[in-house]
Specification:
The chain is α/β, with parallel strands linked by helices. It folds into 2 domains: 11-52 and 203-286; 54-198 and 288-322, Rossmann fold (3-Layer(aba) Sandwich). Helices cover 38% and strands 25% of the residues. The strands form 3 sheets. Strands 4-3-2-5-6-13-12 form a 7-stranded mixed sheet, with helices on both faces. The protein has a 4-stranded mixed sheet with strand order 1-11-8-7. Helix 2 packs antiparallel against helix 9. The longest helix has 20 residues, at 54-73. The protein starts with 10 loop residues before the first helix and ends with a strand. It binds N,N-dimethyl-L-histidine. N,N-dimethyl-L-histidine is lined by residues 47, 55, 162-164, 166-167, 207, 214, 283, 285.
């Protein structure tokens, strides 16, 4: 399965990707970036408050507890914070407040969802000493824009939270961090969140909650194809499936066809046969070991400064400095 680049994409790109992913030989797949249209993004916001999805709260807890230590670790007087995939920026406020106690800061949330970006700008723009400069761009393009606008003497702090790094394939994750590093200069910093390995009894309900919110989040990609590509998916003939691949250490989300059927997708110029039990792979969520995230950072040109682990939900935040 490919890597989420979270770029802004056109209808024709969506149609082309759908055609490719559903008509190729072997495992059918749809890129996970297509889960996040307006409905999908709203459902994801609900996922973050589900009792079974401890990941978001662990990230927020660590930020709240360690904001002062992170701020103290940054040596520079002038700080620009760039957040890759800020969402609504809910959990970032803790850190911005701690940083802005020392000096005025610039905060650039980089996000493709206009709604989330708008909400983020409104809420975080109210913080004292924080100048919010939102960018509706793909991660790397946004980061390059922030880097190009920096003034001499400013230190850049990149936030990549929420364990979105886990939605990349192993090799692609490292490649992505290398590209982030290339946009930076020595002394800049990166705060990276990663969800850690944990018992299946905890992990599976986080991706298959009893209320069915994650199932709706997943199934929405079929509804999206019906809405945008005139497809005729019968949502009642597919069900959400979350499974763990122990060798790859990842949760995989799939949509399973409960009967043999054929779906037509006019705007993607295809008609797709499904046999009973066949799946469309929609997302991977890799689970890390604490040392592994440090190693990944090292191999991408960063030096790990500190790592914090959450006491309630196996989750790590690692602060790196660019070498
Ligand atoms: C955005 N990303 C880190 C989430 C995750 O946990 O992999 C996406 C998600 N998919 C289902 N639930 C949450």
């Amino acid at each position: 399965m490919a890597t989420p680049t979270l770029a802004k994409y056109s209808l024709s790109e969506f149609a082309e990707d759908v055609r490719w992913g559903l008509t190729k030989d072997g495992q059918k797949e749809i890129h996970s970036k297509y889960l996040y249209d307006e409905v999908g993004s709203a459902l994801f916001e609900v996922i973050t408050v589900l009792p079974e999805y401890g990941l978001f709260r662990a990230d927020e807890r660590l930020l709240r507890q360690n904001a002062e230590s992170i701020a103290a670790s940054l040596e520079c007087q002038a700080i620009v914070v760039a957040e890759l995939g800020s969402g609504t920026g809910r959990k970032t406020a803790w850190l911005l407040e701690a940083l802005a106690k020392k000096q005025p800061i610039v905060y650039s949330p980089i996000e493709i969802s206009a709604k989330a970006l708008d909400q983020c700008s409104k809420e975080l723009g109210q913080l004292h000493n924080v100048d919010v400069r939102p960018l509706q761009q793909p991660y790397l393009d946004g980061l390059l824009s922030v880097a190009a606008a920096r003034k001499p003497g400013e230190q850049l702090l990149v936030l990549f939270l929420g364990s979105t790094i886990g939605n990349f394939e192993w090799r692609a994750a490292e490649l992505f961090l290398t590209e982030v590093r290339q946009a930076l200069i020595p002394g800049d910093a990166l705060l990276l969140s990663a969800d850690l390995e944990k018992p299946l009894s905890q992990l599976l309900p986080a991706y298959d909650d009893p209320l069915g919110v994650t199932a709706s989040f997943d199934l929405n990609v079929l509804a999206r194809m019906n809405r945008e590509l005139d497809a005729d998916f019968d949502l009642s003939a597919f069900r959400h499936l979350a499974r763990y691949d122990a060798a790859e250490r990842r949760i995989e989300m799939h949509l399973l066809s409960t009967r043999s059927q054929r779906v037509t997708i006019p705007r993607a110029h295809c008609s797709v046969p499904f046999i009973e039990g066949e799946t469309i792979w929609t997302e991977s969520s890799h689970k890390f070991r604490p040392e592994e995230t440090k190693e990944m950072g090292r191999r991408s040109g960063f030096r790990p400064l500190r790592q914090w682990l959450d006491a309630e939900w196996a989750f790590a935040q690692t602060l790196f400095v660019a070498e």
